[in-house]
Design brief:
heterodimer; A: 426 residues; alpha/beta; 4-stranded antiparallel beta sheet; 13% strand; B: 263 residues; mainly alpha
Chain lengths: 426, 263
């Protein structure tokens, strides 16, 4: 039998309540994913389904015959498929239906439900999940529309709020600062003083944003050479790096020196040689390598590890605030989608259509019977029965056909037509 | 007719100013697009106003204080649109268009009387002098806006307090580059305007150069400031904060000079 209901449900686990030991057991790899989609869509209770499986979440979105049964079925499926007992997993599962399911998907796609708020990866993962399901024809009208909408909402959130624009790691905050000082990093150079792991990470990040020239200085020259090789840069002798400082637009220090190794005078000279071209100093060494008064110099910007951490913290807070704005957008979009979604629900329309016909029939029959008072009660009953079955006969085919057609791609057009032809929205 | 177009352009710039501020604070792409259209519509009305005025007076819009303000604000919008097109700094509008609005609003209170300019050699030099100077001032006004943006951005990066503007505004390098480029265009224009003004003086049988305390001296000061900013960058690498401050100071003296002239 073809469903006439549009029950949307979602069952899943995520990083918030479920430890990684459980999540990894519940993950679907690509092969499992495809088999599962096909299996689920062959279940008579499930009309459409999409499985989203990432390292932080496993979720099944489905349109089902009956919400309660559908949710149980999906929970059973996830447990059985991975050979785990339902009882052990129940505490981790969450399930949403209709409105809440829509809102959840929008939040997930817009990265409001992510471990790192606003990270960009999740949207790509949702898109992949959707295209896999679509390729296997396990989706239909409703989920197609829902997921396409979710991508739009995610884009809108990204464009209209600052949720993704603030770096939330030390190295991304450093890159952001570099881009606010230099704009295009391509023609700029970076010098590493010390070969700490964090410094290397930050340098790699800068290189990925286009920095081409890299200098590496270390007390152990061999280490400088080794790191210079991995970064495709050139090694400097530790005694000479001070004279070469002026060449670098960005300097990252991470030595184990117990006292400052870069003083105000050194940077003063460098900046003079650079004809006041700005210089960005990142000191991630503890104890610090660069004297803090260096920041007093014009066109010099010095950030130590605490400064960067403060920037990261402030950015996190800011993302949290932006998340509130994002929620407003999402709420608005859920309402919009829901309006469309509710028109899909064919049952109320059929009931309304029948009620309208019944109302008309009753009015007309009553009017006629008033003038035929000589008829016995039985005769009157017969007339009622006759007209009732007449109306039923007339409406029978349209009802059946509507239920069938609503499943097709342009199902909502039929629904709209019926509502229009029978004046149901007046 | 010219009154209608004048008021329409004034209103459009007000709408655009508000729009750009809303965009700066709340980032709604639609608002920025609307503000852009408001500027475009304002410019069309503005152009119509200048066209009507010129056909009435029979010469370009540079003889009375009203015309100068009308022409200057028009040129600022033109330079702004060109800059925006080249640099794609959306938030520049929040700093430039309010300035345009103020200049135009101010001009509304100036006398609308027309002056006749005799057809002569003097007319040519006057036209050159005023047009070139006003073009220079328009460029300086963009440098002024870029300078203010630079100082705001520089302050945030330096003090490590990265507010909302930090993310909205372009990098220091872009702002410094914009400052340099517009002064590179504006300064020669202004200098030529200055020279043609002197030639006009001699044509009018006045001394080539006069140390008039209210008229010439402020202009010389203005010229010296931009000269320092201009050559300072080329020779000793005067850039960044100092260049931004120079552009702001220069524009303040331009405004001061204008008021000394009309008083």
């Amino acid at each position: 039998m073809i469903s006439t209901e549009s029950n949307l449900v979602l069952v899943g686990v995520n990083h918030k309540a479920t430890p990684v030991e459980i999540r990894e057991k519940l993950a679907f790899n690509q092969v499992k994913l495809e088999a599962s989609l096909e299996h689920l869509v062959s279940c008579p209770e499930i009309v459409e389904n999409i499985i989203l499986s990432t390292c932080n979440r496993v979720e099944i979105y489905a349109r089902v015959e009956n919400s309660d049964q559908g949710i149980q079925l999906l929970k059973d499926f996830i447990s059985d498929y991975h050979g785990l007992s339902r009882g052990s997993l129940d505490q981790y599962f969450y399930s949403y239906r209709d409105n809440q399911a829509i809102e959840h998907l929008f939040r997930v796609s817009a990265s409001l439900d992510s471990m790192i708020l606003g990270e960009a990866q999740i949207l790509g993962q949702v898109k992949d999940a959707y295209s896999t399901a679509r390729a296997l024809s396990s989706t239909g009208l409703v989920l197609n529309q829902l997921f396409e909408k979710a991508f739009n909402v995610a884009k809108k959130v990204r464009e209209e709020t600052g949720i993704s624009e603030r770096g939330v790691s030390i190295s991304s905050a450093a890159v952001e600062l570099a881009k606010k000082i230099f704009e295009d990093l391509e023609n700029h150079s970076v010098m590493l003083v010390g070969t700490g792991e964090m410094a290397e990470l930050a340098a790699k990040h800068l290189i990925s944003y286009g920095v081409k020239t890299v200098y590496v200085a270390s007390r152990t020259y061999e280490r400088a050479i080794a790191l210079a090789q991995t970064l495709n840069g050139c090694a400097l002798d530790f005694d000479t790096f001070k004279e070469e400082l002026y060449r670098a637009d960005i300097v990252i220090t991470s030595t184990a020196a117990p006292t400052f190794i870069i003083h105000k005078e050194m940077i003063e000279q460098a900046i003079h040689k650079r004809k006041n071209k700005p210089i960005f100093l990142i000191d991630i060494a503890v104890p610090r390598d660069i004297a803090p008064e260096v920041n007093d110099l014009e066109n010099v910007y010095l950030y130590d590890i605490d400064d960067l951490q403060n920037v990261v913290n402030a950015n996190m807070e800011e993302r949290q605030k932006e998340a509130e704005n994002a929620m407003e957008i999402i709420k608005e979009e859920v309402t919009k989608f829901n309006n469309w979604f509710s028109t899909l629900d064919v049952v109320p329309t059929i009931i309304e259509m029948r009620n309208r016909a019944e109302e008309m029939r009753k009015n007309e029959v009553d009017k006629t019977l008033k003038n035929l008072s000589h008829l016995s009660e039985n005769d009157q009953k017969a007339i009622h029965q006759l007209t009732q079955s007449l109306v039923n006969k007339i409406l029978h085919k349209p009802t059946i056909n509507l239920k069938k057609k609503i499943q097709s791609k342009d199902g909502h057009v039929y629904l709209k037509a019926i509502r229009h032809l029978f004046h149901l929205d007046d | 007719m010219d009154k209608i177009s004048f008021n329409l352009s004034l209103f459009s710039y007000l709408v655009a100013s508000v729009g750009y501020f809303v965009y700066l604070a709340y980032r709604r792409p639609l608002v920025s697009t609307l503000a852009g259209w408001a500027v475009a519509f304002g410019l069309v009305c503005h152009t119509v106003t200048i066209g009507i005025r010129s056909s009435q007076t029979g010469h370009g819009p540079y003889t009375t204080s009203f015309e100068v303000a009308l022409f200057l604000s028009w040129l600022i919008v033109v330079v702004y649109i060109l800059t925006e097109w080249k640099y794609k700094i959306k938030d520049l509008g929040a700093f430039v268009i309010p300035l345009v609005f103020v200049v135009l609003l101010f001009s509304a209170f100036l006398s609308k009387e027309t002056t006749l300019v005799p057809e002569s050699e003097v007319h040519f030099w006057l036209t050159m002098h005023r047009t070139l100077s006003i073009m220079g001032y328009a460029a300086f006004s963009i440098a002024f806006a870029a300078g203010i943006m630079y100082l705001i951005q520089e302050h945030q990066v330096k003090t490590k307090k990265l507010g909302i503007m930090y993310f909205r505004m372009p990098s220091l390098e872009v702002l410094d580059d914009l400052n340099f480029k517009v002064i590179m265009i504006g300064f020669p224009l202004f200098t030529l305007g200055f020279m043609t003004g002197s030639i006009q003086n001699t044509e009018m049988n006045q001394p080539f150069f006069s140390w008039d305390l209210t008229r010439t001296l402020p202009l010389v000061v203005t010229w010296l400031i931009y000269c320092l900013v201009f050559f300072g960058r080329m020779v000793v690498g005067l850039r960044g904060k100092k260049a931004a401050q120079g552009a702001i100071l220069g524009f303040v003296t331009v405004v001061g000079t204008y008021f000394l002239h009309i008083l």
